[in-house]
Amino acid sequence: MFQRILIANRGEIALRVIRTAREMGIECVTVFSEADAHSLHTRMGHVAVPLGGRLPSESYLVADKILKAAKETGAQAIHPGYGFLSENAAFARAVVDAGLAWIGPPPHAIEVMGDKIESRRAMLAAGVPLVPGLTDPVADADAAVAAAKGIGYPIMIKAAAGGGGKGIRIVRDPGEMKSAFRTASGEAQSAFGDGRLYLERYLDEPRHIEVQVMFDQHGGAVHYGERECSIQRRHQKLLEESPGPIVDAELRAQMGEVALRAGRAVGYQGAGTVEFLYSKGEFFFLEMNTRLQVEHPITEMVTGVDLVRDQLEVAAGRPLARTQDEITWRGHAIEVRINAEDVNAGFLPATGTIRNLRLPGGPWVRVDSCMYRGLEVGLNYDPMLAKIIVWGEDRATAIERMRRALEELNVGGVRTSAPAALAVLAEPAFRAGEYTTHFLEALDLKGRVGAQERLVAAISAVHRRAMASRRALGADAGDRRGWQARSRAALSDHVRLATNPGGQA
Amino acid sequence: MKYFVEINGRPHEVELTERLGVLSVKVDGEPLDLAYSEVDGLGQFFVLSEGRSYAVSIDGEASELGVTIAGALYDVHIEDERERAAGAAERAAAKQGGLVKSVMPGVVVEICVEVGQEVEAGQPLLILEAMKMQNELVAPHGGRIQSIHAQAGQAVAMGAKLIQIASLEAPE
């Protein structure tokens, strides 16, 4: 097993990997940008290496800086987390060429699965069911309109190099094609440096169900069952659950078998997720995410398996610790993503400094978070701040537990997606397990009547009066002190970065 | 003292009266029993009302507050009588003219129109990128582009003035 690994990521996922590594007695090298000098992941590893730069393109996305950090600290392997370089085949290859272990699938598998068009070809050959669509990218909007006739509307435009909901548009009639094509292409170009787009049919009553798989280097492979991820908005997931409310043992075995077939077709190793679109009894291959997923904890909760430990063991060359028959599922798990978003303003990105933080606790509540008091939430990084994960002996218990946990949570200073998740949990259709990927977008979240409106009105007035009288009494320094403290912090930040770039070990 | 409180867009009137150091509260004319205390100076409060306890969080300053009770977020706009009078005049002024403001902090990727160009309602005006997502901002109504206050590549704050559209019917 490795003695020391480098985690080429930030935020909650870097912490997630650190935690398992610490439990296994493995030391962690963390890397951080200037903006992350005080981040939890920077502080919680064994060795912290500054990458410099504030933007991802100046730090976490610079392969050379990360490889240099690994070399200098003697890390034997690199865990990429999710996002950033995790699905970058060139980086994976560079890691392997540098004589380090890559805690992820072989570069070739990333390449094939990362290209929507190539992966469709590979899946077709392996007999994995696919959504009707084109296997080649379209040249322009006019060609897209022509091709759309053969596929049928509604049509989904997707970036060939896509992921994370970027470069995706739904077109319901030919008139919308031009503007959708242009924005999707621009988005794909700026996000991935590749503006190629392809088309496919948009399915009715679709549910997004994905299967967690794990392959070792010796031909061993298992699946850990499914996660239902249909509660999403603009293809960004908000809430996930496992098992899927409509998945029975037979469908699970069937989807698991297809997922393993998909992985085998590209010579997969390590942890991966095969995403399917389920529609009226059928399921189709959507894509394979060649990394650990954000929502992996719900699988861990129902299987009792630490997926990061599996990843590390497999990457170190060990065979899988368990056979398919030894994997069992117990109870129900739900995850809610706490994103910096203003739900009342239509999920617009929210920014601010976290001032007042209260995290939920209690039985079967897990919090994977990168939040701390003083964290400045800006626009440079992914808006996900935390994940709340709960387990219950059945789905109804898990739903009530999640509601309770979200009621306990408070993130002051930055608006979050938590109220939207609470609204979802209260919806009868969700509680019945009857929902599709359109559920969240169709949910009217604006102007909801809260049960405590009169009380809130009274509290607001009393609060306003208390603040005003405090100012009048001259004990107002609250505001000004805050401002001074912030500017001092910014200054000391600068000094620390200039003179002690090593951070704390 | 009277306060005009708008919660998620719905109006309420709160009257606070202090007599011999005791504050009495009326919401929409009905008395409400309320005790409020600050917990940590960071935004957590403890409230007792009508025999029940509430862990309350309050964010924001002056007239725009975010109040959270049991995970439910209430967007609060609060004005006293003087501010209400001033606010009414401002709102009347803002109704005229079509000013397109940035709906979020982000970076302007592309401006799709020019000064003097006629636009129809729904026509894309500019593309704004935030969190790596590109969003088209469209004309709220038809008219002529009067002025453009941003350029491609510029970072803009939420609420920043972007484009002014003049109504075609209105005399220039």
Protein architecture, described:
The complex is a heterodimer of chains A (505) and B (172). With 505 residues, chain A is of the alpha+beta class. Helix content of chain A is 38%, strand content 23%. Chain A has helices at residues 11-23, 40-44, 63-73, 89-97, 107-114, 116-126, 141-151, 177-192, 249-265, 296-303, 307-315, 395-408, 418-426, 428-431, 439-442, 453-473, 477-499; strands spanning 4-7, 27-32, 47-50, 77-79, 101-102, 155-159, 169-171, 197-201, 207-215, 221-233, 236-242, 270-279, 282-289, 332-339, 341-342, 348-349, 352-353, 356-358, 365-369, 376-377, 384-392, 410-412. In chain A, the strands form 6 sheets. Chain A has an 8-stranded antiparallel β-sheet, with helices on both faces. In chain A, helix 4 (89-97) packs antiparallel against helix 5 and helix 12 packs antiparallel against helix 13 (418-426). The longest helix of chain A is centred in the C-terminal third of the chain and has 23 residues, at 477-499. The model of chain A is unreliable at 475-505 (pLDDT under 50). Helices cover 8% and strands 58% of the residues of chain B. In chain B, 28% of the residues are buried. At the A-B interface, helix 8, strand 16, helix 12, helix 13 and helix 16 of A face strand 1, strand 2, strand 3, strand 5 and strand 6 of B.
